[in-house]
Amino acid sequence: MDLFLQEGSRVWLKEDAVNQPCTISSVSGGVVIFTTDYGEVYTYKLKTLSRQRVCVMSQESRDGVEDMASLQELHDGAILHTLHLRYTQQLIYTYIGSILVAVNPCVCVSGVYDEAAVELYSAGGRGQLPPHIYALANQTYRALWQRHDNQCVLISGESGSGKTESTKLILRFLSAMSQRSQPTSSHVENAILESSPVLEAFGNARTAHNSNSSRFGKFIQLHFSYRGNILSGQITHYLLEKNRVVRQNPGERNYHIFYALLAGASTEQREALCLSPPESYQYLNQSGCITDSTINDKLTFQHVLGGLSTLQLSESCIRNVLQVLSAVLLTGNIQFLTAGGAAVSTNTVLGQLANMLCVDSSLLSEVLTQKSMMLRGELISTPLTIEQAEDSRDSLAMALYSRLFDWVLRCLNKRIHGDSSFRSICILDIFGFENFEVNRFEQFNINYANEKLQEYFNKHIFCLEQLEYSKEGLEWENVNWNDNGECLDLIEMRLGLLALLNEESHFPKATDATLLEKLHSQHSRNQFYVKPRMATHQFGVKHYAGEVLYEVSGFLEKNRDTFRDDILNLLKESRSDFVYELFERIPCQNVESLRNSKHGRLTVSLQFKNSLHSLMSTLSTCNPFFVRCIKPNNNKMPGQFDWQLVLQQLRYSGMLETVRIRRRGFPIRLSFQDFYSRYRVLLRGSALLDDMKGWCLQLFHRYNSAESDWRIGKTKVFLRECLEAVLEKQRDSEILKAVTLIQAHVLGYLQRRQFRRLLQSIVVLQKSFRALLCRRRYLRVRWASVVFQKVLKGQRVRRMYKQLLEDQRENWRREEERRREEERRREEDKRREEAQRISQSADALDQSESGKASQQAADSPEEDVASSASADSPEELSGEVLSKVEAFPPDVPADTAWEGEEAWQVEEILRLEREMELLRRRKEETERSLGAESQERLRRLRDAIDAQASRAAQHFLHVLNFHEIDECVRSIESTLPDTHAHAHSQTHTHAHAQAAGREEEDVDEGLGADDSPNPSETGQSDGQRTSGIRSGDESEEEEELYANERMPPPTQPHAANHSLPSSGDPAYCPLQSEEGEELIPPDEDSEDEDVAMTTRQSSSHANQWPSQQRVSIATSTSSGAQYYSSEASMEGSDDDFDRCDSDGDSLGRRDSVYSCVTLPYFHSFLYLKGGVLSVWRRRWCVLRDEMLLWFRAKQEALKQGWLRKKGGGSSTLSRRNWKRRWFVLRQNSLLYYTNDKEDQLKGALDLRSAREVYECPDRVNGIDVVMPDRTYHLTAESAEDASHWFSVLSQVHGSTEQEISEMNAEQANPQNAVGSLDVGMIDSVCACDAPDRPFSFVLQFSQRLLECRADSAEEMHHWITLLQRSKGDARVQGQEFLMRGWLYKEWSGGVAKQLRRRWFVLTHASLDEYSSSQSNTPKRSSLLLTSLCTITHTHAPSGDWAVAVYGRRQECVLVFKLQSEAQRWAAAVQDVIDSKPPVETHTQQLLLNIKENSLNSELVEQIYLRNPLLRYSKHSLRTPLLALPYGPVERRGHRRGSLHSEALKMFDSLLQLEGVANPVPAIQGLLQTAWELRPLREELVCQLLKQTSGDAAPLSNWRIMACVCCNFSPASRSLLTHLKFHLKRARECPEDTEVARLAAFSYEALRRVCGRARECVSSQQELSAILRLQDMNTHIHCHGGGVCKISINSHTTAGEVVQRLLRGLQMEDSRNVFSIFEVGGQAERALDSRTAVADVLAKFERLTAESAAVQTECRLYFKLYCHLDTHSVHPTSMEFAFMFEQAHEAVIQGRYPAPVETLQILAALRIQYLLGDYNSQNAWPDLEQLFPVSRLRSRLQACTSLSRSNSAHRKRSSFLEGTLRRSLRGRARAEESQEEAWLEQEVCVLRGNVQEKWARLEGMSQQDSMLKYMNIIREWKGYGCSLFNVQCADGVYPEDLWLAVGQENVGVYKRGEAWPLEVLSYELILSFGAPQPNTLCISTQERHLLFLTEQVVDIARLMKTYISLIVKRRVSTCQSISNQGNHW
To answer: How far apart, in whole angstroms, are the C-alpha atoms of residue 4 and residue 519?
Structure first.
């Protein structure tokens, strides 16, 4: 101890469990003083020190090391001291093996990252230069070619540790390397580098710990080429912190872009964007931190503009981006006040915001202050409170910013998008671990992401590496590490934090308090969950980096991410295309879709979880490099090293364990082949060994014989980085030598070639000069020769012509003689036949002689045919041809002889064809005349020839060696020699099915787009198919090779067994095996009832077939061309129909469920414990088809279970009995016992000798097994059991012994399993290191843990290897499957629909159907899922739930018993459909091309000329112009085909409308179709664009275009832009003025219809006016009989009409509010000011047409709407007359509560106003026009009902009750007549009283009577209020009420009474709306008032109008007061 305790010694002092580096300052007096490197001093007595507390520091630790894996002291202090020592030396990078540790210097270090550093580290390898981020980037870059896979760099650390800067440095280095690999710089590198300032400005902000903190995570993918340059890239972002836009914590700032915009905008930009100082914005000044000294906001703005320009954004796009940013800031300045709900008080800011977003300010105010909902087709608006309005405002701001951020990132990805054929480098820069004073929802998700990354780090550094050592047999001692799996289980498991959070988010009434209560109750006992003792609104999680407490307030609201549909719809209707583009892809919540129909929209946390799992799946396929960023202090001060903070980061990140495993481990792991391929150049001079392992040993012994840095495993080599650096350096040296040698040879070759070229050029010059002289002499000689030859050839040709002419005449003569000879022979044959017929009739009595004669006559033609065929055989004819050719004279020239020969050959060929046709006809005639025996003999002869050819082909296939075929296909191919000859019966049937399939593919399905499956999506391409599985083309080739075309197609192959002759017939020997077994392969996959049905039908009709047809069926199995498609033989079955229609999938081959991948299979005994298994149980475990099954015992039988068997005895009675037997299927034997103990065997069936196994449709769950001696009838207990039994029996029946043995080895029936587990659900599999449980491992999944124990270590590691798979790795057919399971499919094969149980697999590309879940089951059908597929969810009357999926060619209807299961499948299918890219047709591509070249008019004209699809056509369309969704459509409750058919009908209607005299009804029907089917609107626009293009387009199409533009506009902005371009282009055309006028009219109509949507299709009157390009006239009625005639167009609103009427009536200064009312019968409704009057007129027309029998007159009235001034109106004004008329209307309708006397006075005043003074001669008006007669009638009815009730009570108590009941009907009629009489008497009395009062008014003028009338009316306090009939719903008031809506309040009256029950001021009303249909709720602070009424919409609209008027009055008052104050 005393030896090293000396002054100045460097030691380690263990203090507080930490070894601190110390220097001994003093040793005296038994006291030792230690001074740490961190400035702390410790004093100890010498005798208290020990070796455990103080130890000597090694020299490496004193000096520091570059790689901490080489440290001798392995403890936290050594690592911490190394980092501190290097940090003080400004060396911030340190290695831990291949892991780079970077300590943030918090200051810019000069000279470290310049171009010289890039040059230095790009040339040097790892270990040659000091640690650097460039060294790791260079290593990653070179690993693309070294390791042959994708690379990824994971940068992790706390917030403020320098992750973002590290990412930028790696990008800079990779960009520099990319630029060096190519001569010119690529735009991708520039875009990536220039995008960093843009992403930082939009995604970074100042936090409490970091001034440039990334508030989003980004995943950057860079795709490189073979040369090393960057081809393309993609950036994905995760969880942008949207909440920071609207609120920040104290000391924090908003996103940098806002401050940069305000600091760097120019003066013009400030004025255009309405910018103000940052202190004036609510979203910027609430945190108290506006400026940051470390950030230059003005410079940031310039960098952002430069980055946006680099992305090739135009000036208009950049201006739009700045406008949206300004709109976000303006949104925060909108303030609200209370007036019957929230109302906007800052109208100036509202107007500025509306201008920025290009929306209507009034609509914007409505969506911010009111919540809209649809009730019974009416839009109900409910006012919001101030808090709710502020939430709506904030949600608008967050949505604007988040969508803008997504748009910027999308533009960047579009800019850097390109080829990705080679490998890629991925860089993950995600938010670091955060622990603030107040942690909210964002911090929870951020820390959750860091937990996942830490798990990934642990998995790759510890788990996988150590598992690799164990598998390869290396001696290794495991290193323990801190596993954060349990913490992730707390967050992710089934009832974890995320699950509970999402569950609460789906409940509308859930609050943050209920969420916290559930979290506490569920997880309070979890060791990683923290339940605070004091805080009542927090919960905590013990993360790997420490404990964090989260504030639960706001969790639910942020997780829901509420963004109302009315706000979304307003933004989608913006006039700005940019704003529309931002929100175009966001779906509305109220759209009736099945995706997540149970829970609605996906929550934020669930989306983040899914994206995080997708990220982990992507990272798992890459080779990782890790960068650990360390934050030295929390203050970001340079030079400060907080050792405790750094130590905490080192501990929770597992750095000590990392150093330990990197020091002991071997991170470089290569297979023998890869190692040999890379380093074989190092042993170039040595003799190569055949053994790879020996070669590797030889290389290692040469360069490192100590075996310290390398190990040899079973299949791989392991080495450390130092040895790899040596090998790489030596390899580079050897390669450099080779390159130098190659260059020397190449340069020498180039010089020699240059010399040879020079020499050759000289020779060429000499040769050319000499040739010139010779050529001149040659030309003169040739001219003379030509003249001589010409003369000679002319002579020869003339002689030849004469000879040919003579030969031709001779041939004609011979032909004429032969023809005459044939005619003569034919006449002789006819005479001979006639004589024979006469002789036969003469000898008809002798039957035996006649039979012999007929037999001889039948045999003789056959001999004649053979003799004639032999006589005129083709060989002899060809001999004649040759002799003719040789007959040319030798003196004839060659070319002339050849021409004559060619002409002669043509004539001979034609003659031979005629003779062969004649011979064929003779042969057919002869065969038809043959008898049955002769035909049989010929057919057998042909079959024998076919059998020999088939055996020869089989032998040829057997000889072939298919090495590349997988094991499954090889086992099938091995059976071909035995069964190949017996599959020929399927040849013609399959060829017919193939032809039908091809015909079906040729049919146009109505879509021009190519939506065929992408090879990348379906998981296999044509070039990647398994060689053993034949494609459709190969099947067709085999058909041509093996098919017998002369054979008629068989009716049913299975029926051949019933018509075969005896086995002794030698003609049938090729069809049977040696044992006599039947060799026809059965249909392995057919389990439908139709198969058996058709088979039995074939059997039953076998005797009716001719014998030759039965033989053809029996012998048609000689070819095996379709062995892999046994389904194709069932030509007439319904299942074959399902298989043929599979959305373009080629089902001609037999695709296995797992044909493209080899799924693992393993079985053994394991001990299990977990869940219900509380103790260890020994179970037989089987891993098969991605399922882990465990059984009580080893499964030896293929299947076993109870079945009912018919018969069993020889008697008739015994065969009718059904016995329940226990059936066991072992190998190919089906055994049945009396019980399940299997002790009494009753019988056995050999399935391979069975003739057939089929399902019996006559019995429920019936199966028949046809044996040679009898048929066994079996019945299962359920449909599922029957289906499974039939599947297994069919497979065994059609399989070979080898296949049966494989089935027996792999068979594990899930129904017999004790438990099962889907491998895809397993989260992790890890070995357990407990000493008491050796060879054990743990399966961890969402529900629970399952602990397993094997019998040996090898078996345990094998199980772990097979089960340890990442999530989503389960694959089917080479692609990941999403869901799978047994489902019921609806099948309509006959009259009634049936349900078939099928195995369905949902992948990312299709919905596949299989007969069974086993791995070798072929695919029955496949429905390709595209973005056009649709899905419906219905509830059947039977109680089942049906989900129908519609594809391009077929539909699939799935039936479920449970609604939850149906919703789960429907949501999964809808997710796949939504994930598909939109399908674009050729029309859309052409329109996009026109848009891109719209400025070049010549190019646009060329596009129109080259593409007929864009021009006018007179022919019908074959496909729609746009991609329309599949599936049926419903119109008015009826199913009307599909959208495709409707689109084609629509185009045909356009063609038929050309030249029609009155096209208005047809145009209205066309518009109505497009109106009801919204997808057809854009299709109609496209069709009109086509039909109005070109000079031949008729005017009728332009008129229809005008009608369409007046009704609706395209929803697609791209189509809308093209439509505007088309109209502008036609409007500027001067040639046709009519077209120009129509185009101008359509353009103006389109501009106006884009702002507001029409409510219905135009009326016929409106369409007629549009066709004339004129306005239409309508009448507006007024009370008192006045009518105003006005002219309107399609877009004239009710507000515009009111303004025109007010101007015409000179009432512009009126303070009251007028409106247009629609009146129909007794109902009236005020029109909204934005309602188009044309829509109301169209509705009137429709109502009139629908109710033609009922004469209901619909009119428009001009009336008072809001009474704001009822006393100051002048009596002589027109407004007073309107008030008078409207008041009188209320009186006669009974809405004026007054006594009868007052009502009589009012009636008398009304008569005086109308008629003047009383005169008995005056005609009285109807009394109902003067007095409320309805009130009188109701009073009489009330009295009568009271008297009836009293009399009825008396009658019930009488004993004559039964007698009196019979006379009630007669008395009821009498009482009704009595009531009418009483009413007449009352009316007469009333008339007399009114007349008397009228007489008293003599002398009163009309004006005085009107004034007195109004004075009486005004006496009622409720005058000016609008009365609505309501009913009390909560029992607080009487049932019948009036709701009086007035200027200042809302009153509640009992109906008919003058005094209110209650008056509610608008100040007291918090909100009002309709919680339910026909229910009005008015909420105050104290209670909620509920009223029942059908006028909810009218009441809410009137209250909203009064409230808006109050708000305007208050705002104007405040503004006037403020203006006066400013003036003062």
So the answer is: 57
